[in-house]
């Protein structure tokens, strides 16, 4: 079934207009993200409101729940966690007017029904699969989930850092310094939200705790979404992204304004630009932002001033060398690494 899901994932004929597949925004060679500021639609004049997140490790997302110990929501899909399952997430881009542009489930089903791989659906789900659009659409989503959850989807846990954890390679001196800063509670303390070690259950580090945080990120005034017509963006250039607060699954939206899901740092070197709105261009600049947000006026005001994390970032007092070392370590998190012969 995962092989069939792969055919669906890479099929550019499933959008309206045709030409955009799931892989158009989730490129394998970009850590299953892309290098656009925000998601671009199948219709070239349409754009989404957020940067495309990497989905290389999306199948490892834990079940949506509230962590009462630190008062944060955990899990969920998309930047705001609004989809509670990978199955539900897979449907989102297919039916989004700003992405793949299909208006109904039947639109998607009718396209898959005409695809060269359609006989595989009847073989797997029965000859009558096309008689019920809802059932057929769910079958399409099931194949996508199987593919994204399979070993064939991406070369996961295959970075230089993974080889280091397996004691098959040494990190360079600079990479080791970066790792030390990354884990040092009195310096970078990045591992507080991006765990970097194998846990007590023997699970490989995913470099995210799947929580939500407001980093005080400024608005991107050049975002093409701000120019979308009123039916897509009623607020126009005054649009503010409330993040987790717009998630229909939470009961106290006000205290969640401006919070977005902590992304995995695996393959982070491939996925520029950064942050939920693509406002930060380079990985080095991300680290500079974490380091000096509260002491350098160049960063500007936060998009949402409430709930900003003022405890773990903003004035880390890292040197330029520290930042370069951190970047060198983050570059070891790119999958499909091969030792030099």
UniProtKB/TrEMBL annotation:
Where is it localised? Periplasm
InterPro entries for the chain: Cyt_c-like_dom, Cyt_c-like_dom_sf, Cytochrome_c_Peroxidase/MauG, Di-haem_cyt_c_peroxidsae, MauG/Cytc_peroxidase
Bound cofactor: record note = Binds 2 heme groups.
Top-level taxon in the UniProt lineage:
Bacteria
Indicate yes or no for the key word RNA-binding.
no
What cofactor does this one take?
Answer: heme
Keyword field contains Oxidoreductase: yes
Q: Which Pfam families match?
A: CCP_MauG
Q: Which residues form the Cytochrome c domain?
A: 1-119, 173-334
Amino-acid positions noted as binding heme c 1 in the UniProt annotation, renumbered to this chain: 22, 25-26
State the UniProt keywords alphabetically. Answer: Heme, Iron, Metal-binding, Oxidoreductase, Periplasm, Signal
Q: List the molecular function annotations (GO) for this entry.
A: cytochrome-c peroxidase activity; electron transfer activity; heme binding; metal ion binding
Instruction: Tell me which residues bind heme c 2.
Output: 190, 193-194
Q: What does the UniProt record tell us about how this protein is modified after translation? A: Binds 2 heme groups per subunit.
GO CC terms of this entry: periplasmic space
What is the protein name for this chain? Methylamine utilization protein mauG
What is the organism field in this record?
Answer: Aliiglaciecola lipolytica E3
The gene name reads mauG
